[in-house]
Amino acid sequence: MSFEDDVLTASVVDLAFPLLGRSVPNDYTQALHAALQQELPWLAQEARAGVHPLKLVHGGAGLLSPRTRLLLRLPRERVAEARSLAGRTLDVGGHAVQLGEPHERELLPHATLYAYAVAAEGEDEVAFMATMNAELQALQVRTHVVCGKRGGRPLGGATLTTFSLMLHGLTQADSLRIQEQGLGPHRLLGCGVFVPHKSAAAVGE
C-alpha cells in the first residue's frame, strides 16, 4: 500500500539505548519493568509509554548481543528526562546491564504493523479477537487483523496469555495512531507495542 508524500509526525518516539552486559533472565520482562520503574518513577503513569521486547541472541538463554538495544516508546515531552538513564547500571533480576548514550527513532507510518505479544484476558482466541476489534473500533482504526501464535509471560506468580498480532492495510494516520496508543494492557512488559513489518505473510514467526 502506498502513502502520500506528506508524512505525519507521531506524538511519541522510540529512544534506543545501547546495552553493555552479558545477559538478562530468560523471563526478564517483570525484572526490567521494576528496574526501569525505580529509575523513572513516572513511567507507569504515562499511558503512551512502552518497552519493546529485547532482541536477544537466538537460543542463547537470555544472552545480549552487541546489537541489542533497550527501546523505550515515550511521549516526546518525556525524552529529555529518559535520557538521564545513559550511563546508569540497571539490576535486571540480578543481572547488571549498563545503558549507553541513546538516540531517537521516529515512528514511520507503515501500512503493515506487527506486535510480538499482545496481552489477552485468557486463552480463548475468539474472545481475544473480539476485544481487539472493539479497541480498534474505539480508536476509529480500520484494518485487517491477523492473529498469530499464543504465548505466555510471567506476571505476579501467574502466567499472562499473549498472542502475536498483525495489522495490515492501514492508512498513514491509523498506522501512527496504533503505534502511539498500542493495543491491550501491560505495555511496559512489552505487550501491545507495534512495529513496522514488511508483509502480512509471516505473522506466526
Please provide a written account of the structure.
The chain is α+β, with helices and mostly antiparallel strands and about 200 residues long. The chain has two domains: about 10-105, Alpha-Beta Plaits; about 115-195, no CATH class. The chain has helices at about 30-40, 80, 125-140, 170-180, and strands at about 10-20, 50, 70-75, 90, 95-100, 105, 115-120, 145-155, 160-170, 195. Strands 1, 2, 3, 4, 5 and 6 form a six-stranded antiparallel sheet that branches. It starts with 11 loop residues before the first strand and ends in a 9-residue tail after the last strand. Mean pLDDT is about 90; it is low at about 1-5 and about 200-205.
What's the helix and strand layout?
Layout: E1 12-20, H1 29-39, E2 50-51, E3 69-75, H2 79-82, E4 89-92, E5 95-99, E6 103-106, E7 113-119, H3 125-138, E8 144-155, E9 158-168, H4 172-181, E10 195-196
Antiparallel strand pairs: 1-3, 1-5, 1-6, 2-3, 4-5, 7-9, 7-10, 8-9
Question: How would you briefly describe this protein structure?
Answer:
With 205 residues, the protein is an alpha+beta fold. It is built from four helices and ten strands, in the order βαββαββββαββαβ.
Summary keywords:
disordered C terminus, alpha+beta, 4 helices, Alpha-Beta Plaits, 10 strands, globular, six-stranded antiparallel β-sheet, 2 domains, disordered N terminus, 205 residues
